[in-house]
């Protein structure tokens, strides 16, 4: 029997189950769907995101999958999005555009190099924040997991903050994700198999080296580890 406990949260009327590390992610998603029928799912379609999409489909999720097109994505990432949209027609895939591109001459084309925090704030965080202000979902379904990086080592299943985040894959390892993706023939971004274990914008992503964290190739050498969506002052 699932024990219910009240968590200190802005969702004071909402009770969250006392999940533990062995809880099946499907149970977490099913609880999320019952508790937050207006749940929405931002995704960048990395390995974690692809696995979460498939699990969400199995749990009956038919909501929106929201992708922020910064204007700097690899073609492989855009193809992965399109493959997933075709595979899960019961969901609505929404692409948010970051607006004017540097190539239009309307924003500084060197911003990602000169000030990647500012670039992410404008091209990633702002479009998603604007979408969330408009849609006002009570919670987000998110694919982060503890073993992606040391900075994510404490991610819980249910994360409170400006908006509740539900992280069904919190305790899954990379090996578990890879095994699930292979078993279900999921359309993983092909760059993953070239060592891009976490794929972001092309100016800010490199393949990881053996033994590195999955996210070590993101903003490598720039003193930055997160885009700002999930950590930092402006986090969701
Ligand atoms: Fe800009 Fe790089 Fe952030 Fe993409 S990842 S929004 S290119 S700084």
UniProtKB/TrEMBL annotation:
<feature type="domain" description="Phosphoadenosine phosphosulphate reductase">
    <location>
        <begin position="40"/>
        <end position="207"/>
    </location>
</feature>
<feature type="binding site">
    <location>
        <position position="119"/>
    </location>
    <ligand>
        <name>[4Fe-4S] cluster</name>
    </ligand>
</feature>
<feature type="binding site">
    <location>
        <position position="201"/>
    </location>
    <ligand>
        <name>[4Fe-4S] cluster</name>
    </ligand>
</feature>
<keyword id="KW-0560">Oxidoreductase</keyword>
<keyword id="KW-0479">Metal-binding</keyword>
<dbReference type="GO" id="GO:0004604">
    <property type="term" value="F:phosphoadenylyl-sulfate reductase (thioredoxin) activity"/>
</dbReference>
<comment type="function">
    <text>Catalyzes the formation of sulfite from adenosine 5'-phosphosulfate (APS) using thioredoxin as an electron donor.</text>
</comment>
<dbReference type="InterPro" id="IPR014729">
    <property type="entry name" value="Rossmann-like_a/b/a_fold"/>
</dbReference>
<feature type="active site" description="Nucleophile; cysteine thiosulfonate intermediate">
    <location>
        <position position="227"/>
    </location>
</feature>
<dbReference type="InterPro" id="IPR004511">
    <property type="entry name" value="PAPS/APS_Rdtase"/>
</dbReference>
<feature type="binding site">
    <location>
        <position position="120"/>
    </location>
    <ligand>
        <name>[4Fe-4S] cluster</name>
    </ligand>
</feature>
<comment type="pathway">
    <text>Sulfur metabolism; hydrogen sulfide biosynthesis; sulfite from sulfate.</text>
</comment>
<dbReference type="Pfam" id="PF01507">
    <property type="entry name" value="PAPS_reduct"/>
</dbReference>
<keyword id="KW-0411">Iron-sulfur</keyword>
<protein>
    <recommendedName>
        <fullName>Adenosine 5'-phosphosulfate reductase</fullName>
        <ecNumber>1.8.4.10</ecNumber>
    </recommendedName>
</protein>
<comment type="similarity">
    <text>Belongs to the PAPS reductase family. CysH subfamily.</text>
</comment>
<keyword id="KW-0408">Iron</keyword>
<dbReference type="InterPro" id="IPR002500">
    <property type="entry name" value="PAPS_reduct_dom"/>
</dbReference>
<keyword id="KW-0963">Cytoplasm</keyword>
<feature type="binding site">
    <location>
        <position position="204"/>
    </location>
    <ligand>
        <name>[4Fe-4S] cluster</name>
    </ligand>
</feature>
């Amino acid at each position: 029997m699932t024990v219910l406990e009240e968590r200190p949260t802005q969702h004071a009327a909402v009770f969250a189950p006392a999940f533990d590390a062995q809880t099946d992610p499907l149970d977490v998603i099913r609880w999320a769907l019952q508790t937050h029928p207006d749940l929405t799912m931002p995704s960048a379609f990395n390995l974690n995101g692809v696995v979460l999409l498939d699990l969400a489909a199995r749990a009956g999720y038919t909501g929106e999958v929201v992708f922020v097109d910064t204007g700097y994505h690899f073609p492989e990432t855009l193809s992965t999005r399109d493959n997933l949209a075709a595979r899960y027609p019961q969901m609505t895939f929404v692409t948010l555009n970051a607006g004017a591109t540097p190539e239009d001459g309307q924003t500084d084309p060197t911003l990602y190099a000169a000030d990647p925090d500012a670039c992410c704030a404008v091209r990633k965080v702002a479009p998603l924040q604007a979408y969330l202000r408009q849609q006002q979902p009570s919670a987000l379904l998110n694919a982060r997991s503890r073993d992606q990086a040391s900075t994510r080592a404490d991610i819980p299943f249910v994360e409170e903050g400006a908006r509740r985040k539900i992280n069904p894959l919190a305790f899954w390892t990379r090996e578990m994700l890879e095994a699930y993706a292979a078993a279900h023939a999921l359309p993983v971004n092909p760059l993953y198999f070239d060592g891009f274990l976490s794929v972001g914008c092309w100016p800010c992503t490199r393949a990881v080296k053996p033994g590195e964290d999955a996210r070590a190739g993101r903003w490598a050498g720039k003193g930055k580890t997160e885009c700002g969506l999930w950590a930092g002052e402006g986090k969701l």
